[in-house]
Request: fold
Amino acid sequence: MAQNHVDTPTPEELVRVIALDGPAGSGKTTVAARTARAVGWRFVDTGATYRAATLAVLRAGADLGDPDAVAAAVAGARIELSTRATDDRPTVLLDGTDVSLEIRGPEVTAAVSAVSAIPTVRAQLIDLQRRAIGRAGAVVEGRDISTVVAPHAGVKVYLDARPEVRALRRRSDGPAHGELHEVQQALATRDALDSQTNKLVPSDGAVHLDTSDLSLEQVVDAVVELARAAGIVEDADTTGAAPATSPLPWVQAAGHRKDWLIGLARPFGWLLFHSAFKVRVVGKQHVPRTGAVLMAGNHTGFLDGPLAFALCPRPATFLTKSELFVGPISRALGWLGQIPVHRRRPDRAALRSALQVLQHGGAVGVFPEGTRGAGTLETVSDGVAYLAVRSGAPLVPIAVLGTSEAMPKGARLPRWRTPVTLVFGPPFTITVEGDPRSRRTVRAAAEQIRLALLAHVQASAAQYSAPESTS
Ligand code: DC
Reply:
């Protein structure tokens, strides 16, 4: 093998690993090559080892139906794999000669599923793959990396794409692939054969990323960001970063966020809140229906977040306290597009994710008092100011009134038919002088936001005391 380590690392030692699993055509190779280049790590294409082994079997004339003969042919072959981060496709040597092109040919592709299904072949090649991965850091693509080869990988991603997208990508690899429907059929057949060996499902803890509608840059950025957040990339700024599972906007958009569920949950919440309380929503016209918008509300009750989520005129991503992201609730919140945020320390990963939502023209909601206060807005976190300054998005203040009475602190049940009012104020933009990245600028912006929000909450409280449903 072309590598520094002659001994085989144990699975526990393979932590500095970005594991990219998924079916053919999901974009694994291109994403792996680009990611390796971005982080300066080795690139290990495990599929290439199965392909080289298959070529060895074909050359030896072994009967594909005879597992012992196949395994013997593989054992007698010398397979070497280049793992340079700069290679788009690693060079593969079989018994000293470069077979990089030949292993992509139709004969090998037709036989590789059968060869890779033999357990003794897999055991040999997995050993070889672990040596190629090494301990220094590698981006590894395959089908069983996060489950078998490197189950302790710091980052696990399952890449997928719709069948027609996968076929299109495969066909654009070269003219030898045939008509689109043929390519799609061939992929389906190989999926079926491969799934007898590897079930091709995301492993526990893997981030599922559907790449169908994403650009290559978006996918690579998301993967690098996960590696940074996991703290396995050296030059990463990990201070205050959330765990590797912190959902990124594209990850949410493509893998976690379920728009259909949001479409169901919001009307359901609307109904629930309207039946439980005397709900009034004012100023919905102030929320722009398209483009980036940042919304900031006062925080007095547990219901503030769910109310704003359900009654806001457009779906929005709220920064939600990370303590709520536990067990199955965590998954549900991810499906609803919510971002976990640490409240007691700066959470850069959460802010980065929220900023990306804004940069993609989305709506983000924040309760910038951090913790539930008396609604007097004595402090406003710098996070909301950072988002406003960096995105330039208009800020819509939200006054949330009555939620501390509707669900008093410590109460187990809400108080039936309590008046609850949500007032969206006119949008405004923050004007700052000086370097928008400096702490002082962000602090000044936070103070502007605090005063504007306080004025809006006080005016709303004075005006909207009598409940009546207008939404
Ligand atoms: O990714 P690819 O198309 O080059 O992979 C070739 C074959 O190798 C694929 O059909 C399944 C098999 N394979 C595997 O069983 N386990 C891996 N980790 C990688 C590939």
Notes: The longest strand covers residues 395-401. The pocket of 2'-deoxycytidine-5'-monophosphate is lined by residues 24, 46-47, 50-51, 112-113, 116, 142-144, 190, 194, 197-198 (CB under 6 Å). Residues 1-5, 236-255, 467-471 have pLDDT under 50 and may be disordered.
